[in-house]
Amino acid sequence: MSAIPRPPRAVTLDCWSTLLRKLDSGGALRQRGAALADLARRRGREITPEAAMELIDRSWALHLDEWRAGRAFGPAGAARWCLDELGLAATAPDLDDLAEAIATGTLSVGTAVVDGAAEALEALHRAGIPTALICDTGFTPSRVVREALRMHHLRLDHSFFSDEVGIPKPHPPMFLAALEATGAEPGEAVHIGDLRRTDVAGARAAGMAAVRFAGVHDDGWMPEDCKPDVEADAVLYRWAHLPDLLGL
User: Fold this and answer.
1) Which domains does the chain have, with CATH numbers?
2) I want to staple 102 with a disulfide (CB 3.0 to 4.6 A). Which of 48, 75, 130, 221 is the partner?
3) Do residues 102 and 32 touch, judged by C-beta distance below 8 A?
C-alpha cells in the first residue's frame, strides 16, 4: 500500500456513490423501458413494459462486459442493441430518441448529493488543493453528469469522463490526465472512489494513493479480473472524516 500524502497536492474523485447517489434506479429502469415499449408500439411491434425493462436490463449486462473490456457501449449502444433484438431498424430519429431516454433516465428520476460530499469539496478548495473528477459514464453520459453536478452546485477544478477520454477506469488515461491537469506527481495525489476494481486498482496502477469511499455501499464486488487483495490505503465511511485523513 502507498502512504497517503498529508496533505496531498491533488485529490481526484469518482462520481456515483461517492459524490452523487441515484435516488431510484428502479424508476430509471421503468422510464427507459417505457420509452422502448412506446417506440416499439409506434413501429408496429407490441411489447409489454416488463419485456421492455428486461431488454434494457440485458443491455446493461452487455455494457458491463464492454466496460470491463475497456470499450465504450453507452446509451447509443444500448438503444441500437434493443432495437436489433426487436427486429427493428436502428434508424434516426428513433435511435436518437431512445438513446436520449436511456441517457437521461437517472437524472429524470432524481439524484442527490452524498451526505457530507459538498462540505468535503469545500474543505479541499479552502485548503487550496486542486480537485478532479474521474468518472465512468455507463448509461449516463458526461453531459448529463455535468448537468447533475451543476444542479447540486458541486464544483471541481477539472473533469474527465470515460465517454470523452475514450477508455474507462481502471485504465490509466483518465488518472494521468487528471495528474497533468492538477500538476501533481502520482505520489502526491489521492484518488477517492467506491469501487475496488476501477477506483482502487486504477489509482494504484497510476502510482496514486487510494481511498475507498464506503459511505453509500461497502464494495464487495470481486469479478474475476480483480485480485481479491486489492484494497485501498484507507476506507472512508463518512466525508466528515476526510480532513483528518488528509491532514487538512
Assistant:
1) 10-23+110-246 (3.40.50.1000), 25-109 (1.10.150)
2) 75
3) yes
